[in-house]
Design brief:
Belongs to the sigma-70 factor family. ECF subfamily. The protein is mainly alpha-helical. Helices cover about 60% and strands about 0% of the residues.
Length: about 200
């Protein structure tokens, strides 16, 4: 189970115990870049909002889980970040309610579950079946409904497994599979013109 995605440098095996501040600093260096990219996509490119959400998640992690092992911080951090994102989107939806034509993507774009096999080893490049630039991928991901964005970014970008992603998103594993599957299908359709061999 990949509770700790990517290669971790945070907890170098050493006999010298690290202070909480040092552990948090190393953890922040490790995940902040990827977390910012995820939040910028989810916030329609609003960098200031994305930075605020990531910073608030780090603060909440530090305040509420200082005694947890560093390995357990990964799913906890993304759970906190997910909750902060949903809170922000609710506030934005309320604020723009009187402007229906400006409404954001719905918060729960699809809650029904499809019986889809877990695509545990699907790489974004394999799923889309082509080489794409980072900008093209990010633009396509940004156009997805928020729950599909979350599922795709947590599974494909962060490398979390289905069970961990479900805990972070506070939904069932079936919902994660559904959101992820729909995200992949939507990305394939959106980026199909780039798959031409002509």
């Amino acid at each position: 189970m990949d509770l700790m995605p990517k290669t971790k440098n945070t907890a170098q095996h050493t006999d010298v115990p690290m202070s909480l501040e040092k552990r948090l600093q190393l953890f922040m260096q490790e995940v902040s870049g990827r977390a910012l990219v995820m939040m910028e996509n989810s916030c329609q490119g609003q960098q200031d909002v994305a930075m605020d959400l990531v910073q608030e998640a780090f603060i909440a992690l530090h305040q509420n889980y200082p005694d947890k092992p560093t390995d357990e911080w990964y799913p906890l951090f993304y759970t906190i970040l997910n909750n902060k994102l949903l809170d922000w989107r609710r506030k934005e939806a309320r604020r723009s309610q009187r402007f229906g034509w400006l409404r954001l993507n719905p918060l729960s774009d699809e809650d029904e579950e499809l019986d889809i096999p877990d695509q545990n080893q699907v790489e974004p490049s394999d799923a889309i079946d082509q080489e794409l630039t980072t900008d093209e991928i990010l633009n396509a991901v940004q156009a997805l409904p928020v729950r599909q964005q979350q599922a795709f970014m947590l599974r494909a970008w962060e490398g979390f497994d289905t069970a961990t992603t479900a805990k972070i998103m506070d939904c069932s594993e079936g919902s994660v599979k559904t959101h992820y599957h729909r995200a992949i299908q939507s990305l394939k359709m959106t980026l199909a013109h780039l798959n031409s061999n002509d």
